[in-house]
Amino acid sequence: MDLGFIDSKTYNEISIGDIATTEHVFTNDDALAFASISGFRAVLNSDEQIERAGGEQPYGPNMWCASLISGLFSMNIPGPGCTLTDVSLSFHHRIRVGDRILVKVRVAAKDDATGKIRFDCEAHSDTGVGVFSGTAELLAPTAKMRWSTLPLPRVIVNNTYRHSLGMIARAAAKTRVKTAIAWPCDEVSLGGAVQAFKDHLIDPVLVGSETRIRSVAEKMHLDLGAIAIIDIAESRLAAQRAVELARKGEVQMLMKGSLHTDELMSAVVSREGGMRTGRRISHVFALDVPSYHKTLFVTDAAVNIQPDLETKIDILQNAIDMMVTIGIDHPKVAILSAVESVNPAIPSTLDAAALCKMVDRGQITGATVDGPLAFDNAISGEAARIKKIKSQVAGDVDLLMVPNLEAGNILFKELQYLAGALAAGVVVGARVPVVLTSRADGELARMASCALGVLIAKPAPELR
Q1: Which of the residues in the chain have pLDDT under 50?
Q2: How far apart are CA 1 and CA 236, in angstroms?
């Protein structure tokens, strides 16, 4: 094989006894990619599969192993242009995620009359356990062929469930959190509240026009049962009433219904009757990005438009405290800017340097913080290495702190719509968590946002 090309072998160039081999480690992404094509849904929830397997890695589909012989025929013997006509395989043992599978094909016979070649095929794991054996017949190309070889495309398995489902399951294992839903007067917000109740996440209190709520419920064939409704005629007044319930400790979480975000947040941040604490209120997104190895948090992309250094101190500490509460011990934080060097002409780099020094002096606690960092250096350890940036967070960052709302909003929407991320979000720094959902959010995103709020909500006595 020449570099960059692969030549086929014709029938006459192939001899009995010729052998080709390959090996591949079966990964969870392999299983998910196979499932997306074949519909083998049993591999989609790997955590559940591990639990059912008694803590071991889950089983995978043996037919995935069989697909490896196709690659051998296409890339080795006979190579490009061959046609597979018959396969007969017997499977002996199941494969698990993490198994290294070794596959071998051997030319067993040639039929000059038909031009067919029969191969003996076998596969075993690196521990010697046989996976399959059998035969395959194919037609070699009648003329030499040369195909250019390009790097295999990198397949990113868009499994947006992997982190979010775990978060939802953890929240569902807790006691339901009593939650005021402000103005749930459309199908999306009311349906989401009822579904969160069914999923054992919240005990909802619907604050809004009872006539409209029941009309929507009837249209959706929803049985509201014993779910509490507080009849309020206007959305603005509903927001104020929901906030009042939280301030008095009667609910432990707020959730946005079909009113505008600014209506709810105006009531939340009101100096008279709001839910202010000693800190500035801010927002945190939890993003389930298919190409990233863990949940990626972003702050603040929804509340503070152009925060100064004093506000950024609260934004950072709010996010760190939230992450510690949900079980991320000592998170790694990257403070983003356009560059990784402190530059007086770029104010966000000065803020980043000041925040990092405050961490060093113990004024901000609970995390490893580095900045300023450009996005590539924060996300990619390789990018940081090439640029000779020594960082304890590069490539393994938990939280991205953005310089302002514009940058954060653009970032999280890029990750949503270009990288397929699932976004959950919650307002922190108030007396109770405030779940803000977008009209464009699907059901899973709404459940993930609700679960995030449930995980950080304090039990009722702690609110008093």
Answers
A1: 1-2, 44, 50, 53, 464
A2: 72
Kindly report, as residue ranges, where domains of CATH 3.40.718.10 are found in the chain. 161-463
Choices 3.10.180.10, 3.40.720.10, 3.40.718.10, 3.40.50.2000: CATH for 161-463: 3.40.718.10
Is residue 6 within 8 Å of 149, Cβ to Cβ? yes
Task: Report long-range pairs for 270-275 (Cβ below 8 Å, ≥24 apart).
Answer: 270/240, 270/243, 273/240, 273/243, 273/244, 273/247, 274/243, 274/247, 274/430, 275/243, 275/246, 275/247, 275/430, 275/431, 275/432
Name the average pLDDT for the chain: 90
Contact 226, 253 (CB under 8 A): no
In this predicted model, what pLDDT tens digit does every residue of 357-378 receive, in sequence order? Answer: 999 999 999 999 999 999 999 9
The neighbouring-strand residues paired with 204 are: 179
**CA distance linking residue 45 with residue 159, whole number of Å:** 10
Query: Is 0.70 surpassed by the pTM of this model?
Result: yes
Identify the architecture of domain 5-148 in CATH: Roll (3.10)
- The boundaries of every CATH 3.10.129.10 domain in the chain are 5-148
Residue linked to tokens 């080709």: 20
The predicted structure's pLDDT at residue 156: 67
